[in-house]
Every structure is written in structure tokens, then in C-alpha cells.
Amino acid sequence: MRILLVEDDPDLSRQLKLALADAGYAVDHAPDGEEAQFLGETEPYDAVILDLGLPKVDGVSVLERWRRGNVSTPVLILTARAAWSDKVAGFDAGADDYLAKPFHTEELLARLRALLRRSAGHAAPSLSCGGLRLDPRAARASVNGEPLRLTSLEYRLLHYMIMHQGRVIGRTELVEHLYDQDFDRDSNTIEVFIGRLRKKLGSDRIETVRGLGYRLTPLEGEATE
């Protein structure tokens, strides 16, 4: 899952980037509204954490422009403005959630998890696909109760696939949602990680749809989520 963090405070940005990376997200950072608007319009993020008090272009204006341009990425507003009128302005501009500074990082991560679940149509805090379980709160996964040992990229790939289980996902889409902007992307590496996941999950859980991509499904006879 790939997140855009829009925050002009260098110390807070570093803190949040580390926390988000530790939680299993790929993170891009924009320090001002101008860069944020460009990235939000040109890159396929799973969610955006958006500060309102930004240099160049304020956060509400950025959000309004995204929504006018049909950018539907879920947005969590993060701001020092705590007045109810500022919250209303943020929601009316198209925000999905709001968190006032100062805040606990754990609350931000919990709100982000909820935002991602809702956007993908999931209600429960943990995700499942038959006997496969993933707990985004702890960044852990298991198959039939047996814990899986996953690298950060394997976890990120599994997280995205289980969020979109049952749908064919192309290699390009996976690359765009697994890696941050600075990563040297190569769609061929997706096949390597798919192969590693199959060894850990069982070969039949991830189906190859020739010419289109991959689909995560429960095994025959297993209950769906």
C-alpha cells in the first residue's frame, strides 16, 4: 500500500515516514501544496495524509483541485487547525477523515487503517481470504493459524492483494502501489515476489491470469471473508 504524506514540518515528516514505513507502507513525501497537487494527480496512491497549512498552495485548495479533477484517493487531513469551521471546510472540500495536532502516531495509523479498509469495502480490522489472515495493526499474516515470516515487500504485496482479493491485478498496478517514488521500479521483480509468496502461502492461492496479472482467492472449500 502506497501513501502520500503532505507535511511541511521536516521533523514531523521524518517521524511519520519512519512510522509509516515500519507499519508496512510505501511512502512518498511532498513538503508543499504545489508538489502535493502534482503527485496526487499523477501517481496512484492508496491514501493521502494532508496537512492544511502548507507553503505555496494551502491544503484545502489542493484537496478541492484533486476532487474537481476526479481524484478519488481517500484523504486524511492532518492539521493544527482545531476549530470546527476548519473541520467543516476540510470535509466539504472532500476529506474522508480529520486528525488535529498534536496527536499520537498510533491514532494516525489506526485512522489510516480504517480509511484504507473502508475504501476497499472491508469492515473488519483484520483481513482474511479463506485460511489466510492478515492483521494490519501488527503487520502480521498467517495461514490456517500458522504465522508467516514475510519480508517488508512480501508483506506489502500480500496486503495489497488481500485488500483487493478476487480481482485481477496487473503487474503495473502492483509496481505502482508497492514502491515509493524513489525506488528503482522493475515489473519483473513482481514475479519474483509472487513466487516467494506462493512458497509461503501455498501455490494455489495466487492465480496467474495469463496476459492480465494475478488474483488472490481462497482455496476450494474454504470460506470467503
TrEMBL record:
Domain Response regulatory: 2-116
A cellular component annotation (GO) from this entry: protein-DNA complex
Chain positions with 4-aspartylphosphate modification: D51
Single GO MF annotation: transcription cis-regulatory region binding
Assigned keywords, A-Z: DNA-binding, Phosphoprotein, Transcription, Transcription regulation, Two-component regulatory system
DNA-binding residues: 124-218
GO biological process: regulation of DNA-templated transcription
Transmembrane intervals: none
Pfam families, A to Z: Response_reg, Trans_reg_C
Domain OmpR/PhoB-type, first and last residues per copy: 124-218
DNA-binding recorded as keyword: yes
Name this polypeptide is given: Two-component system response regulator
Classification of source organism: Bacteria, Pseudomonadati, Pseudomonadota, Alphaproteobacteria, Caulobacterales
